[in-house]
Amino acid sequence: MIDDTTARRQVVEAADRLFYTRGVQAVGMDAVRAEAGVSLKRIYSLFPSKDDLIVAVLRHRRQMWDAGIAASAERAATAREKLLAVFDFLDGWFREPDFRGCAFINAYGELSGGSENVRRTVREQKEAFGAYVAELVRAAGAPASLAPQIAILAEGAQTTAAILGGPEAAAQARDAAETLLDAALEKTPL
Amino acid sequence: MIDDTTARRQVVEAADRLFYTRGVQAVGMDAVRAEAGVSLKRIYSLFPSKDDLIVAVLRHRRQMWDAGIAASAERAATAREKLLAVFDFLDGWFREPDFRGCAFINAYGELSGGSENVRRTVREQKEAFGAYVAELVRAAGAPASLAPQIAILAEGAQTTAAILGGPEAAAQARDAAETLLDAALEKTPL
DNA sequence: TTGCCATGAGAACGATCGTTCTCTAGAGTA
DNA sequence: TACTCTAGAGAACGATCGTTCTCATGGCAA
């Protein structure tokens, strides 16, 4: 028998694939069982309910998001370049053939009416991303008011790319962010 | 008996309220019947399926959105002010107590995996809004590349306001749009 | 080998869904 | 008044969901 950690990972990754592709409510627990190769009994011993599994999937998505952003930032030298690297990360993501928008936004739209846990988990990841951007804005020497503007650009790029179906929004948002950065640094010289 | 036009309107408005508040899949047709005061038989004679009703609701939402944007633009004199008026409209909307994000984005996240009709209807409204912004950008004498940037700000403000739960994103996006407008017009003088 | 216990496969359960059907009551007409 | 037709109320249907339960199987201790 596979150990709990492995089973847990298999279930979360399988559910993530299915949820992201088809939507959460459209995927039954039996489909998760088939995709993960883990029995229903085992799944329910690892996750007390589907709601808990959804939250675990969102946490897993957040780890992947954080890792992707961090990897993209590593290749940048300055805080300004790290900020713009966010949009380079988005650009690569938008070009993946199975890109279907931000899983957090999708889950929020689908489940926020029903699950408080989902609402909170989604809000937490958006707040964490906002804090990440705010820290880079501070390091770049720009006024704090720039941070939410950049975060809004990143959010908007994700929904625009999902709905219109092309990667262009990433470059457009990146250009806008660059303009905003230039304007902010101009007003706040060293 | 009420005529078809009235019944249709009652059903669409009732469904809109329920779908927007609780999510589409969480609302059964029987709940729509109760809220609208129109029998199931009648509903199914007006809309062949729930999918058709969803599309009708989205079209209704689009009319309300277009009207709101137009009313906000009417109070503005120049093209530049009309562009910024979009964010004033958003600001008022975000402050409504039952604001729960953009119905189109929510529907897309919830249903795009299953319904081609929903996908297309959502895409159409985003494209229409993009065209509206593009026309104003042109009238303002700014380069065309500014238009998608402003549209992305509007999209991002909507999801940010929905998830974080405050109206601040509207003013933040408005400030960003103003900065982008200034920078664009500076580079492209008359 | 024998008994035991945990496990997985999948049937079962109760709820709910979208959709259709039945039945009844009432309006309109001759 | 008697007949017809329509529409509404809601039961019914088949499917599917999340969750639980049953039962056969196979490893493991003695």
TrEMBL record, chains A, B:
Residues 5-65 form the HTH tetR-type domain. The keyword Membrane does not apply. GO terms for molecular function: DNA-binding transcription factor activity; transcription cis-regulatory region binding. Pfam families: TetR_C_13 (PF16925), TetR_N (PF00440). It comes from the Bacteria. Keywords: DNA-binding, Transcription, Transcription regulation. Residues 28-47 bind DNA. The keyword Transcription applies. PROSITE patterns: HTH_TETR_2. PANTHER family: HTH-TYPE TRANSCRIPTIONAL REGULATOR RUTR, HTH-TYPE TRANSCRIPTIONAL REPRESSOR BDCR. This is TetR family transcriptional regulator. The lineage of its organism: Bacteria, Bacillati, Actinomycetota, Actinomycetes, Glycomycetales.
